Amino acid sequence: MTRMIERWFPCAEVSANSSAGWGSGATEIGLFPWFAKRPVAQAKAAVVCSLLPWPEDQAEQQRLQELVHRAMSGRYSAWQMLHDEIHKANPEGASVLDPFSGRGMIPLEVGRLGLEAHGVDYSPVAVLASTLLTDFPLRDWSQEPRLPFAEESDALYDDRPRLIVDVRATLDEVGRRWAAAMADYYPEVNGKRPWGYLWAIALPCQECGNRFPLVGSYELRRPNQKRGRKGAPPVVDPGQSFYIEADPTAGTCAAVVHEGPPRRTPTLTRARTAEGRTLPGKSAICPFCSHVHPLDVHRRLTDERRATDMLLVVADHSDDSGKEYREPTQAELSAVATTPAALRELPDPSPFLSAIPDERIAPGNNNIIGPSIYGARTYGDFMCDRQTLAFVMLTRSIAEVADELVCKAGVSPDYARALSGYAGAVVARKLRRATRGCALDPKLNKVHDIYANQGSITFSQDFFEVGIGTGPGSWSSLCKSSMSTLSNLMTDILGTPVMVARGSATSMNLRDTSITAVVTDPPYDEMIAYADSSDLIYAWLKRALHNTWPELVVTSDEHGCQEKTEEIIVKRVRGEAPNEHRTREHYDTKIAQAFGEMRRVVRDDGLVTIVFGSGDPEVWQRLLTAIEKAGLVMTGSWPANTEASNHQGKANIETTLTMTCRPMAPGRSPGRKGAVEAEIKAEIKRRYPDWERWGLAPADMLMAAAGPAMEVVGRYSEVLDAKGEPVDIYTFLPLARAAVQESMAVEINHQPLETFDARTRFALWWITLYNRQIRAKSELRWQALASSLDLAAIRDLVPDADKGVRFIAARDYKGKIDGDSTVIDLALALAAASEEGLQAMGQVLADAEHAADDTFLWAAVQFLADRLPDNDPDSVRYTRVLRNRAGVVSAAETVAANSYEKSQLQLIDDVQLRLT
């Protein structure tokens, strides 16, 4: 049976719904931090279209398409009809597996449809995250006993799902115990509990020996003008800043808080040498003696553990400005001074765990784990002493509450896992706004995310510690948002729990041919180091959940962190990492094995659908090689713009492909390259009218062409060239793209595109597809391949622009015009010369030695004038060239005549000179 995804996919709906609303996944990702976001819209479409059939009858095709359109309008839209159609198409039952489930977005959509879903991931942190999202919310917990610390009214009058009520009670109880345990270390001032505390690491000056803090910004709160109450004038908030005041006599320094913008230069800033050369990075400047410590010096001092933490400023709540900053009181400084001793006295939570995380950071992780550049050796080294103590007591409170749930309340082990797991999720979210990587945001009065840079953990010399009160990043704030997320997830919830397991995608505990469809979003080469980036979370979760999730404690990793032997990534290494095995060869080998394992467990008539997010031709080549080695054949490829919005952990991709593969048919025979190429062209020509009818954009057709091309190639055991040598299947992808262009039969002012010279054909096709849009550099490589041109031959036409490429503006064209110039070069030169007048344009035309009525030239100029946006300066330039066509031609003739006359006079002079 042909499946819908092999012939059609709701690209437009996936793109439209991936950036906001139900389809973005914004609700789902709020439950637990992870580093790759798969939009719900794409996950849902991939699952549904992999399970629905594609009938021969066109009316039936349209009916099912309309059903999918309806289903893509909301989380549970057309649920019953969709559910019934899937069961009708799969009478033996439908099951879906995601062997790289991550946070569980794809299995969640399967479970929401009421189908059998399996999620597998190698990271125990990911398994926890996906279980909390895809399993526990879909279970019935109504028979569990009442919690001892739940309010009586919760049990009697609350009509919310039992899980929501009890998670709320558990989080509140953890918060109460934690606040009580830490109250002495975060004293109230004037009856108020501060929001948080600004710290900085302090280093001894290499000149005067005095210790001073490294502060990159003195700004605390931005100036702001708020609208006053009705009839009252605006309220002007001047903002707040501070500076470091040094006392050379005492050898001490402290922060001085004041209103308004900063008055002094911070101690961590750009500096120059005596010769005026700017030093790299930021230098630390001593406020006592002004001695400059370049980046390499203060980084070395920090790495040598010569830094201490210095409390600078306290942030209170304010009715007027939201947050109000002040110097710390003596009581607050004294409370800070007691924490080192308290840390030393902490007992270990179990025989297998230390109180403070002692899991070591693996060598070569400097580019992933920022604190490792600045002296951190373990995952317990990321915080100041008081923050470390706070996290120890917080995780201990969760473990104590979990024990009581089982021993005193008598809840089932699974329910204890669920309730403590959601508390652990809040710990994970709190870690995102903690450690020395968490800086203050003076504009929003919030704290930054340590995972802001695509999964890498940041480090900041000045950092913010959120206290035990209220405010952004606090336990109460995070619990409130977590409960909102869980409540939204469980609103009108439908479906069945997902079966989530920890394991390797290369060796799964599933029977052969037992799965209807595999739908997965595999890791992309070296994009994200999932395990290394989440080891900080792992270290603290072990301490919070060691009694309810004991499997978290078990690891064979030599550093005590998550296991990485079978992790399928390419690890970007900085520094020495002699034992690092996650190389490109490792990735290519393991991803092929994983695809092979998917082929083993999927039914012979099933599908393996792969969501893939790289546009690099080389990565594509490696991916297709892995798919082929696994005994799979790609049969569909559909693009969608799923990554345009800014989400935590977003990688630098905008367009992702949803590809589907079938198991290779047995008994295939070899094919010949010429015949296969002809079949590919014919197949794409046959599919093209449908793509056009469905409104697929030309650029999307290029991506969609990969599916039918690979399906044709997959009919053969191998493809041989004229010499009988095997042909790499990857070579047919550029051909597929060229076949789309051929099928479109693009005309340039009534001139077929294929009749233009190759360089001009490339340029006009690029404008047809992308106009002035910035595109990824990989797309330029694809287009060069499809045009059978070397990249160097067209690179000047599509230069770099804003981290991508864009078609050249005429004013930037620097080419030399002569008799060998192509049509596009001449058109660009004419547009550039149009600013200077007829004479300059005529000179260009004359230099090119083109006929004045060159049909191809004027067709190209007309096309560019029409296609470029009206407000584009080049559109104006090409229009100017067209309007002055007669004058340009006349000027060119004059230039040519003058040039001829000069050459004749020069010839006469030369003859006379020889005669004399």
From TrEMBL:
Protein name (Swiss-Prot/TrEMBL): DUF1156 domain-containing protein
Gene3D superfamilies xref list: Vaccinia Virus protein VP39 (3.40.50.150)
InterPro entries: DNA_methylase_N6_adenine_CS, SAM-dependent_MTases_sf
Organism (species): Streptomyces formicae
Native organism taxonomy: Bacteria, Bacillati, Actinomycetota, Actinomycetes, Kitasatosporales
PROSITE patterns named among the record's database cross-references: N6_MTASE
